[in-house]
């Protein structure tokens, strides 16, 4: 985006020269970049397969989306600070001032969950998500502001085509996301085949389909909504079954929705999945792999182990607090019995202390292989730190963001 933006401005300046004061010029370069980035975020919000694949998974796409949001805030403040201001109340100010305040408030709210000010914005996920719905209006406001301001963008044809063209694309993406996605998005209707409790706080939901297996790669996740569930809202869960089998979710009670989900879910009731998403798949790694799971972070590895090809050697280490929390050991033992290239260890931190990676016999994976990590954020951070000190290159560490905001 930066290269395209700089190129368009270079072409403009070399063709038309400098038509306004330098501060105005810089301010406009910055504000037009902010507009282009708002449109990029609207495009990302469509969850288009090409973008999802390019950014290596929807979870990483969300990270990029957040980074772009914060960049927009910095650009908008910089534009406001340096742009020469006309005296009195001109129309461009009527549009700009409320828009700047709203945009900054929106970015503050949207980024809050990852920052110390999270406590100031105690929004439930669905409410927080709903605050994003009006983002397209910012594109309209910025375009209107530029029409009232003495802007290069509407004086110079190349820039006009570029900036207003991107704005139109952003608006189309917004309209698609808000009005058409529910109809044309990657949804599939399935039915609940079974629901049962496995262990104290994990519910396993299996979905049946008359139209054959749900196409996905081992390790991918999908958004699940259940007509007979605690609420119709969607939640992301990894598909923990072999890609050739029915879809299975292993869901740990960890909040409003998941706490109320249980074995009472009626068989045959309607379910809908959106996806599959994610690029946390073993095919991305090298021949020797170390898989590190923490708690319910085992779910992608259950699918990946069932689907493991003969050319990949894997050691899976599953860190749980106490051994009885490791619920799928029978399934993993069966896979280890059938596949000589798959081994697993359960590590109970309450009895054995924190997992030290250098004590594992996984030299090949740590030296020349790839490491896959899935689990709670603090555990992931601790493993990433250890992996760094063991010299594992960053490019060979793959991890799944187990939260999207
Ligand atoms: C890619 C991915 C894969 C996951 N796989 C599994 C899995 O296999 N098994 C499992 O038990 N958990 C999994 N999770 C976590 C699971 O999605 C959350 O625990 C669940 O959505 C919490 O919902 P809640 O209402 O019960 O809890 P809440 O207390 O309402 O939410 C806890 C946190 O979960 C996130 N969250 C809540 N609702 C949503 C939503 N609708 N969409 C996105 N995030 C939301 C928010 O960050 C929120 O702060 C996965 C999460 C992600 C992002």
Note down, in words, how this protein is organized.
The protein has 405 residues and is an alpha/beta fold. 46% of the residues lie in helices and 18% in strands. It is built from 15 helices and eleven strands. It has helices at residues 2-16, 22-44, 49-54, 58-82, 91-111, 125-130, 135-148, 152-155, 157-184, 256-260, 299-306, 329-338, 349-352, 363-368, 377-389; strands at 187-197, 202-208, 221-226, 235-238, 247-252, 270-277, 288-294, 313-320, 342-348, 370-374, 397-399. A six-stranded antiparallel sheet has the order 4-3-6-1-2-5. β8, α12 (329-338) and β9 form a beta-alpha-beta unit. α4 packs antiparallel against α5 (91-111). The chain is elongated. The model has no long low-confidence stretch (mean pLDDT 92).
Write a concise keyword list for the protein shown above.
alpha/beta, binds flavin-adenine dinucleotide, 15 helices, 46% helix, 405 residues, 11 strands, five-stranded parallel β-sheet
